[in-house]
Amino acid sequence: MSVRLEADERDQSLRELVENGWTLNDVQDTINKTFKFDDFNSAFGFMTRVALLAEKLKHHPEWTNIYNKVDVKLTTHDLKALSKSDVQMALFMDHIYVTIGD
Amino acid sequence: MSVRLEADERDQSLRELVENGWTLNDVQDTINKTFKFDDFNSAFGFMTRVALLAEKLKHHPEWTNIYNKVDVKLTTHDLKALSKSDVQMALFMDHIYVTIGD
Questions:
Q1: B54 interface with A at CB cutoff 8 Å
Q2: In terms of CA atoms, which chain B residue is nearest residue A66?
Q3: In a designed cystine with B54, which of A24, A47, A50, B60 is the match (CB 3.0 to 4.6 A)?
Q4: Strand order in the sheet with A23-25
Q5: Dihedral sign, CA of A74, A76, A80, A81?
Q6: Domain of life of the organism in this record (chains A, B) (predicted)?
Q7: φ, ψ for residue A10 (rounded to 5)?
Q8: Straight-line distance from the first to the last Cα atom of chain A, in angstroms, rounded to the nearest whole number
Q9: Residue of A nearest to B74 (CA)
Q10: A32 interface with B at CB cutoff 8 Å
Q11: Residue ranges of the domains in chain B?
Q12: Which residue out of A46, A50, A64 would a mutagenesis test of the B interface target, given it has the greatest number of B Cβ atoms within 10 Å?
């Protein structure tokens, strides 16, 4: 079940995420980021860790992988807006990127 | 090391792949296919099996995953053309799709 972000929480979360390299598309209400790794192995390792959380949350990213790069788009289709799950996924990606990324 | 496809081999391989749902983009010399699954779990399972072969062959797809769909593009950048590895990857994807896909 998708949970809306309250206005204050949204503002604060987005401020932090944008500081950390996420881009807000406020037409589609998506957040987007490109993660770059040493090689495909690290990029796919990152995707695998994210996939496990995505299954747990029942909330899945839209993402493209080309060799060492992963382009991620997050949004919540049933709300047509960003939700708490998008923020949770984004924070998790940033967190594990520190351990896997270059 | 990328290995070029001889003309006859290329014609035959492409004929078979196109019959199996691959699209040839002859401007970029890529082959493309969308694989559709029951859910994200199956789609990412497919990607994981393909990733292991990609690492073994040192030949990686360009791919986008949105929930239960995986869009794949194959080409060989150092040849700027399709190679034996592209055909091998495409055949492997079609093979395992039979066991995972819907």
A1: yes
A2: B62
A3: B60
A4: A23-25, A30-36, A69-74, A62-66, B62-66, B69-74, B30-36, B23-25
A5: negative
A6: Eukaryota
A7: -60, -50
A8: 35
A9: A66
A10: no
A11: 7-100
A12: A64
The CA-atom distances, in angstroms, between B36 and each of B24, B50, B73, B82, B92 are: 19, 15, 15, 24, 16
Q: What does the alpha-carbon distance between residue A19 and residue B20 come to, in Å, rounded to a whole number?
A: 46
Pairing outcome for strands A30-36 and B23-25: unpaired
Find the angle CA(A14)-CA(A19)-CA(A24) to the nearest 5 degrees.
45
Residue type present at position B87: V
Is residue B102 predicted with pLDDT exceeding 70? no
Element (H, E) at B30: strand B30-36
Interval B54-79: pLDDT, tens: 999 999 999 999 999 999 999 999 99
Q: What is the ipTM of this complex?
A: 0.95
Q: What architecture does CATH give domain A7-100?
A: 2-Layer Sandwich (3.30)
Distance between A62 CA and the closest CA of chain B, angstroms: 5
Structure pTM?
0.95
Question: Rounded CA gap, A3 and A22, in Å?
Answer: 20
CA distance B64 to B70: 6
